[in-house]
Every structure is written in C-alpha cells, then in structure tokens.
Design a protein that fits this description.
Radius of gyration: 23 Å
Structural class: mainly beta
Helix content: under 10%
Strand order of the largest sheet: 11-12-13-14-27-23-22-17-20
Number of domains: 1
Distance between the termini: 67 Å
Largest sheet: 9 strands, antiparallel
Shape: globular
Bound molecules: alpha-D-galactopyranose
CATH class: Mainly Beta
CATH topology: Beta-galactosidase, Chain A, domain 5
Length: about 375
C-alpha cells in the first residue's frame, strides 16, 4: 500500500503542487542555476565517445559549442533589422565534424599554425612532429586538439552563461614534450560578445599556441563569398612567408602592400594581387598592441546586412586567412557548398614557427608558468 491510498489527500495535493511548480520554474537545462546555458547529447565519435553540444544565449546572440574539438558549431547574430542568422561555417550535425574538414570552428593546439619541417630543439632535446601539411607540421598534428573530446562543465560567471572545457594532452602526444593541462572557457556576455579564455600548465617545457579557427561569413548563410566584407586590422606590420607559408623571420610594414587593412577595406578589393601562393590572404599580422593585454585587433563589417564582428585579443598576432583552400569539397550547414573565399578566419596567435625565430615573441611554456590567452568576438549591426 502506498501513502496516497491511505486517505493522505491533502499531503498528496501539496506534493503535486510542489512538483508542478518545480516543473514550471525549472529551465529546460541540466543546470537550473546557469541562466542561458543548456546542454544536449550531440552524438558519438567513431570510438564510441559521447559528445555534447552546449548552447549559450545572452544579449542578442546564441553560440553553440561542441565538446568534440571544443568546436564553435554555430553563432547566430542579428542583422541591422534584427534578423538572427548563422554567421559561421560548419555542419548541421556531428558527422560533418568527424569527417575531413579544414578546422571549422575548432580549437587548435597544442601549436596552432606551422612549425617548419615539423622539427624543433628545445632545451637541447630534438623533437619530431607529423608532417601533416608537407613539408611542415600544421595545427597540432594529425590528431590535434580539434580531434579530441573535451570534458565540459558549466561555470557560474557574473558575465553570462559560460562553459569550461578541459583536455590534458599527454607527454609525447603528437610528438610534443610534457603533459599539458589545458582549459578553454567560452562565455557569452550581455553585450553580444563571445569571450574565449584559454589556460594551460605543463610539467616539461613545450611550445604552445592555442587559437580558434572559426570561419565567418556575415551574410547569414548566403551562397556567397565574403569578398564584399570590409576588414580593419590594427596591424602596421606582418611576417612575410616563404612558399610553404613559413615566416622568413622578417617583420615588415604593410604600408604600400595589399596587406594594409589599417583603414576599412573590402577584402576582395586587392585580393587579385595575392593570387600567387597562397591564393589569397593567409598571413600573420603583427598587432600594434604588442599583445599581453586585451586590445582591439580587427573588425569585419558586412555592408549588405550591417553585421559587424569586432575582435580583441591578448595575443601579439592574428592570422587572417581568406578561405583560399575551400574548394567545394565540404557541404556544410543547410547543404551549402563551401567554395573558395566563402569564409574568413581571424586566428589570434603567437607568430607562426616562433620556435625557430628568437626575434618573435616567445611561445614556450615552462613548468611553474601558466599560459593564458583571451580573445573576444563582439557582434553588432549598423
Ligand atoms: C590556417 C592556415 C591555412 C590553412 C587553414 C586550414 O589558417 O594558415 O594555411 O591551413 O588553417 O585550411
């Protein structure tokens, strides 16, 4: 016999009332107390590891981040009429991310960008990495941080909904030295910005360069290139590269070159002058801020929709990549075929191949030190 069968009417009514009110006030999320944050199962990797998708909403934007690759899967941002549409490239489901693709939205590490010939010496010891972008190593290797499942936990933050992802890369993983404990925290703030905070510690000296590889197209899911977007870059200098995209070591002024974006300029305006290798822009810009403090780095404005994304970072450099290698192979969101220049990346970073260039800002993390990196993408419309 249960309690309700024994004339416990008032108690039963009170219990139901209580349950009902709980159902009404409980948000549709596992984290009742983190406003604007929800979680859903996103699928499984080929090895059967569960992947989750977190949705963060604040102000006028919605950001979705998957635990696979700590990947930004979606950013919805309003145009000047308030119409919210997708502004990043990617896929409609996990399957797309598990397949071959050029780092759509992914967290890249342990070392974003290139290391010449995949070889370096640190503290007298020689290391060899996979040559996954012949003749160089690119974006952390064959199974970089973009190809692993991160642990995630919601974070109480006064700034807005926040999810903290952690991954420990083992000593020797992809050829790199030291156990590297990494966290990447995504926060969506009330002023329509996505803030990404990175932190890492190691037990052996290692090169490190963490970044995010989101591709933006502010036209809102349109079947169009981003060549009509206007770019401003707070960089008077850049690092010229050889024909394998490895810096020569020089730091040169952008003045008088098609890389001068100090005033807002349509990306397509001078791209024809960049048609030799690498077929557009794929360069590290030396930010005037010098890095070390959060400072304005870049702004992209799409005149047709009015959408703007403004990037600030603590990093000394930003790789502006104009989606030159997109060739229609990837069929993305809503069946859209991503062709050349359909998306642009602004990757906050230390300079490429820093390990071989003592004149570049140091990108080695040592035991006892904490690596930090903060990058903010703020959305608006005008
Ligand atoms: C970075 C590199 C590019 C390219 C893309 C991924 O932006 O600089 O050369 O490798 O990643 O396709």
């Amino acid at each position: 016999m249960n309690a309700f069968a024994n004339g416990a009417g008032p108690a039963r009514a009170a219990l139901w009332g209580c349950l009902l009110s709980l159902a009404v006030v409980a948000p549709p999320s596992a984290f009742g107390d983190v406003k604007g944050l929800s979680k859903m199962a996103y699928g499984e990797t080929k090895d059967g590891e569960a992947v989750d998708l977190y949705t963060l909403k604040n102000g006028k934007i919605t950001v979705k981040v998957a635990t696979y690759g700590a990947t930004i899967v979606s950013i919805g941002a309003p145009d000047r009429d308030g119409k919210v549409e997708e502004v990043t490239l990617g896929f409609d489901s996990l399957d797309g991310y598990l397949g071959e693709h050029p780092y759509f939205g992914a967290t890249v590490g342990r070392v974003a960008n290139r290391i010449a010939k995949g070889k370096f010496t640190l503290d007298g010891e020689a290391y060899s990495l996979a040559i996954n972008n012949p003749p160089n190593a690119l974006h952390g290797g064959v199974k970089g941080f973009n190809r692993v499942v991160w642990k995630a936990e919601p974070v109480e933050s006064p700034d807005g909904p926040s999810v903290k992802m952690t991954y420990t890369s083992k000593d020797g993983e992809e050829g790199y030295p030291g156990n590297l404990a990494t966290t990447v925290t995504f926060t969506v703030t009330a002023d329509d910005a996505l803030r990404i905070d990175y932190e890492a510690t190691t037990d052996k000296a290692t090169p490190i360069n963490l970044s995010n590889h989101a591709y933006f197209n502010l036209a809102g899911g349109a079947d169009a290139t981003m060549l009509d977007h206007e770019l401003t870059l707070a960089a008077s200098k850049y690092t010229p590269v050889d024909d394998t995209l490895i810096p020569t070591g020089a730091i040169e002024p952008v003045e008088g070159t098609p890389l001068d974006f100090r005033k807002p300029t349509a990306i397509g305006a001078r791209i024809a002058q960049m048609e030799g290798e690498p077929g557009g822009y794929d360069h590290n810009f030396v930010l005037d801020s010098g890095g070390g403090k959060l400072a304005f780095a870049a702004r992209v404005h799409h005149p047709k929709t009015g959408r703007v994304v403004e990037m600030s970072t603590t990093e000394p450099g930003v790789q502006f990549y104009s989606g030159n290698f997109l060739d229609g192979t990837n069929v993305g969101k809503g069946g859209l075929v991503y062709k050349k220049h359909y998306g642009l990346c602004l990757e906050a970073q230390h300079f490429p191949d820093s390990i071989h260039h003592p004149n570049f800002p140091d990108a080695v993390l040592r035991p006892g030190e904490t690596y930090t990196q903060t990058t903010v993408y703020k959305f608006s419309a005008r």
